[in-house]
Amino acid sequence: MAQSNHYQTLDVQPDATQAEIKQAYRRLAKKFHPDTNQATANHDKISQINAAYEVLGDPQTRQSYDQELEYSAQLEAAGFSERGMRSRRQRTEAAQEHYRKQRQAEQDADDQLKLWIKRVYTPINRTLNEILRPLKSQMNELAADPFDDELMENFQAYLEDCKGLLAKARRSFESIPNPPSAAAVAANLYYCLNQLSDGIDELEYFTLNYDDHHLRNGRELFRIAGGLRREAQAAVREIPR
Question: Is 30 exposed, middle or buried (0-12, 13-18, 19+ CB in 10 A)?
């Protein structure tokens, strides 16, 4: 049986664009993450998805991975049997070791992690607090009279601020590729930002039609985003220093 690879894990073709890979990752993460879909939640599957996106989401690491796949294909084309080759686990470990050595040769992993935390994680974490913290008080103020023009304008101004802060956080997230050791942190931040984007949309729908369904959805998406932020914070503390 042919060895499964990261492209198969994300259900994309080897010639997929980076945008298509990102879309596939987001779709699968939403499907299997326990915070969004208990029915299909799968810890092992989400770990495989994160590992695949860690490699394919970065054009440089993806190029190295493609070379590994091409080398394996050449071996099979040359007639090497599965029995004659190393076990799947040994081959995977060898590829991972090759990848680690290559990354270490490019730059010191510890310095890379410190730079990412300083320029990406820390400012995003601060920005997320600016978005999430005021929601409760904003909702309480609006609840006094949702049909009051001044209260509604204040709430809409808060949502506009949220959109600006969210755009700022996304720019920070895309400014530097995350180091391998921070993959879990980056995955939680990425999904947190997506949840907030959807939550802001739902709350804006409420300001247009006063449908409580959108209000409940928005609050729930913000709650999930808060949980993902806490998971990112916990993952940072678990990174070996």
Answer: middle
Residues ≥6 apart with Cβ < 8 Å to 100: 180
Nearest to 9 by CA among 44, 60, 39, 58: 44
Residue 203, in any domain of the structure: yes
Tokens at residue 91, please? 């081959």
Whether 42 is in a domain gets the answer no
Residue with tokens 């993460």: 29
Distance (Å, whole) CA 104 – CA 16: 28
Domain encompassing residue 119: 109-238
Could you read off the pLDDT of 145-169 as tens digits, one per residue?
989 999 999 999 999 999 999 999 9
Backbone angle region of 122, left / alpha / beta, with phi > 0 → left and psi within -120 to 50 → alpha: alpha
What's the number of CA atoms in the CB half-sphere (13 Å) around residue 6? 28
Model pTM above 0.85: no
User: In total, how many domains does the chain have?
Assistant: 1
